[in-house]
Every structure is written in C-alpha cells, then in structure tokens.
Amino acid sequence: MRHKRLAKKFGRSPEHRAQLMRMLCAALITHDRIETTLKKAKQARKDAEKLVTLARKGTLAARRLVAARLRSPEAVKRLFDTVVPALAGRNGGYTRITKLGFRRGDATEMCVLEWVDKAPAEAPAETPAAE
Fold first, then answer.
1. In a domain, 121, yes or no
2. Is the predicted pLDDT of residue 117 greater than 90, yes or no?
3. Tell me, what DSSP letter sits at residue 110?
4. What's the pLDDT at 121?
5. What's the alpha-carbon Rg for the chain, to the nearest Å?
C-alpha cells in the first residue's frame, strides 16, 4: 500500500527518478518555462518551489544545499541572482502549470511549467486595421 507516499515513481529507479527531477528543475530555472507531461510537472513544481524557498534565505549554507540538489552551477547562480529576486514579494506559489492538451503519440496530457512572474504565453496581438 502507498499510504502517505507522495512522490510518483514514473516507472524508473530511484536514482533515475531523482536525476529526472533534478534535470527538470534545472531546466525550469535556466529557461524560465518547460514543456513536459502533467504528472512530471506536478512533481517538478514541488521540488522547484522547495528550492526557491530554500534559496530565499540567501545564506551560504542555503546555496550549498541548493547546489547539492541541483548539481548545476549555472542553475544555482541563476536561481540566486535572477529568479529569487523576481519572486521576492511572494510567500509561495512560485510556479504556474498551463495545460496544453494531449500528446499525439500516446495521448499523455502535456503542460507548460513556468514561473508566475512571467506573463503566460499568448497569441501575438493583431495590428489594428488601417482606417
């Protein structure tokens, strides 16, 4: 029974699953938005928000803990220098999941995971007609 087991397994070994979440979080930090499956996005959201909460402390110990979890120096630097200052006024809820529909190959629900300080992707604005 899976009582109180919150993490999804994704059909992977624990090491592979941890690396997958690490990679998704690093990609979110580096690129500000990622397109992935809904289940992976929901798990990556939990991990990314915990990293932001930890990084908001701004201490050397927090930086080392984030670096140990991400294992990407570029992502750690961008998290502390760019992402955390942009989210400084928020007490939580740093990410947004926008559903995109179903993937054609296997009908898996796809979504975009992005930071809330960025505007959601919209269709290009139409130019007004000449009068």
1. no
2. no
3. E
4. 47
5. 17
Report the domain count for the chain. 1
The pairing of strands 95-102 and 109-115 is: antiparallel
CA 27 to centroid of chain Cα atoms: 8
Domain interval for residue 101: 14-115
DSSP 68-130: HHH--HHHHHHIIIIIHHHTTT-SS--EEEEEEEE-TTT-PEEEEEEETTSPPP-PPPPPPPP
**Are the CB atoms for 40 and 10 separated by under 8 Å?**
yes
Q: pLDDT tens for residues 26-49?
A: 999 999 999 999 999 999 999 999
Q: What is the pTM of this model?
A: 0.84
Helix (H) or strand (E) holding 79: none
